[in-house]
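Teaching soon. Got one?

===
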Amino acid sequence: MYDFNEIINRKNTNAIKYDFNARYGKPENMVPLWIADMDFAVAPEITTTIQAVVDHGIYGYTDSSAEYDHALITWYAQRHQFTIDPSWVVKTPGITFALGMAIKAFTEPGDAILIQTPLYPPIAHTVKLNDRVCVENILINQRGYYTIDFDDFEQQIIKQHVKMFILCSPHNPVGRVWTVDELKQMADICKRHDVLVVSDEIHCDLIMPGFTHHVFSKVCPDVPCILMTAPSKTFNLAGLQCSNIIINDADLRKKYEHEILKTGYHQLNVMGIAACTAALTQGHQWLEQLTAYLDANRQYVIDFCEKHLPFITVTPLEGSYLMWLDFNKMHVPQTLINEFSHSEAYQKMTANIKLSGHPWPFMIKMLDDAGVWPSPGNMFGTTGEGFFRFNIACPRKTLEAGLNCLRSGGFHAR
């Protein structure tokens, strides 16, 4: 048995989640439920493997071997019934880097790229920073459950002359695990209009009981796709920078590899190679127990909100460890609005953001005063205003502390 209840002190380890509050304008000693890494120790098998590399004492130029490829191929064959040829795999230091390379390789400045909002912020940022046009297919929120507006999906492609579609599967932040029918319908539209699909599947192994992740390239093998995967979310290895981009079309893969070579990047991190290999060969049992723990945390949030914070609508979590909570029925005291709206902190918070009249800055102020730090929904697009994303990949006591901050912080319905 692995101990996911253990509280591990991450202070003074250069952890973004714990050591840089001032940089983000946050008070000290917040309960951090924002950035998407876990507060759990990795599987001990991974640490043992890395320790062997440390004991060897040489960290020179290193490349992945047949053992690494076999581990990746076996993992996907066993868990997803998806067959990968080792020649299809391109290694990169991270998914956001890989996404930037795909944008550069397969589109031109000014081209339109379709995304589905609300969405993980770095995706839209990467599109815009590369001088491409971000086109939104807004997901339909049906009383807390999100679905795809397929008519709008196709119309946006036609009207905006979309060249690329970035799929987030499972979706971050709304937690959907897309069905086979949903994937096929999106794929058919993209194929019909010659749109390249980039499928970000970084959360594909963090699936709640009762749901099944479907690899896009398996479900839709005849639709060109850049499939983006990594062990970083599954096994809490983000700091080791190791991702696997799977491209079964030889011409697309050659073009993609050339774009990466232009950056001067070549080999993976030596520790990343060791950790990824160990995770995929020895991490099955740890992941099964982790998933059960996350599922229990998910249910704890649901039960807590129903009992103590009924004004919060909890979006059903199907995949990932990120819960999307709707605070739009929350009461914001008028006294707080009057006082905080004239403060320097408010001016800094809203200086570069176009407001739509929503009281989210005051919600954030209330959360800060209560001592809990989730990700504010407006980061994920305008349709995220009034929502907050909570990271539940933490010991139960941490999650309890965060929710009790809400309970005792004056939060109630309008």
Summary: The longest helix spans residues 284-308.
